[in-house]
Design brief:
Layout (H helix, E strand, L loop, with lengths): L8 E7 L6 E8 L2 E13 L3 E6 L10 E10 L2 E8 L9 H21 L2
Antiparallel strand pairs: 1-2, 2-3, 3-4, 4-5, 5-6
Length: about 120
């Protein structure tokens, strides 16, 4: 997590990668477990993944939807993330964009290290 600008440590990860399957990612922040979870709505490896996204502050009956699209680009790929955000969360758009960018940058570093 430190590579993404976060100070927490991974506490739990649960992934059921299929349509209708759920995921759970938890990290420790200031001694407390903080979780994100959702359900996979579309699963089309290796190009498209659509899922719901929930946090402890969100209403699970009205989740945000996230669409991740991966397109080949030479020796690499272009990743596009469309995160539908309800009007009530508009104050978090900048933070959300920064979070996704940090995750993608960390993944890029990991992949480059494996070459």
């Amino acid at each position: 997590l430190q590579s993404m600008g976060l100070t927490g440590e991974i506490a739990r990860v649960e992934i059921d990668p299929r349509i209708g399957g759920r995921f759970l990612f938890c990290d420790m922040r200031d001694g407390e477990e903080f979780c994100h979870w959702g359900t996979y709505l579309e699963f089309q490896p290796p190009n498209r993944l659509v899922f719901t996204w929930n946090t402890p502050d969100s209403d699970e009956s009205d989740p945000c939807n996230v669409c991740l699209t991966i397109a080949p680009d030479g020796a690499g790929s272009i990743v596009t993330i469309d995160n539908e955000i309800d009007e009530k969360w508009q104050d978090y758009i900048k933070e959300t964009k920064s979070g996704w960018q940090s995750i993608l940058q960390a993944e890029d570093r990991i992949l480059k290290e494996q070459k």
